[in-house]
Predict the structure.
Amino acid sequence: MSFVELLYYVGWAGCIPGLIVGVWRIGKGPTMLDRMLGLDLLTITSVALMIVYSIHHHTEDFVELILIVMALGFFTTVAFFYYLSHLPSSYEGLSAKEEDNS
Amino acid sequence: MMSLNDWIGGLFLAGGTFFMLVAAVATARLPDVYCRSHGVGKAMTLGIILMLIGCGIVVENISWWKVGLAIVFQFTTIPVASHLFCLVAYRKKVRRWSANGWVRD
């Protein structure tokens, strides 16, 4: 295994914490915005995984898939915030509990 | 049988991976939705762009138009989404973190 291949495996391994933290933030997050941020992180990290796969296998078949998943993640965020901006400020998903300090 | 393109692209990939790790740490450790969207917005934009440049360098036969389109798309949409987080959080009066404690304004 050469050094360049080692760099590819570093690329694979570096995307795993993004996935774990995204799922953890979706489950944990005090407000609904934190959960949405976790979903955004998850989407962009999966795009990064597709890029690492393309680099590792020297294939150019996934560029369209990368573009489509990027667009889907962005429009999901915008649509959810359009829905969220019509909710009242007193909605309980938007207020964190005072003792929950993370 | 490694060419120079593989080396340069691998180094770009490693740089992008570092910034992905920075974004993951920022999402896990920062105290607030404003701080978290700041961390994700900046670090993710730079990391994804470095990774896409590495992909365009390493892979032969790839179309630089599509890679450039992906770079431009990420460069516009990730900061917009990051600003949307802060905008909705500010309009809905989500509490924010300061050095003296939690502030709700």
User: Anything to note?
Assistant: The radius of gyration of chain A is 17 Å. The mean pLDDT of chain A is 87.
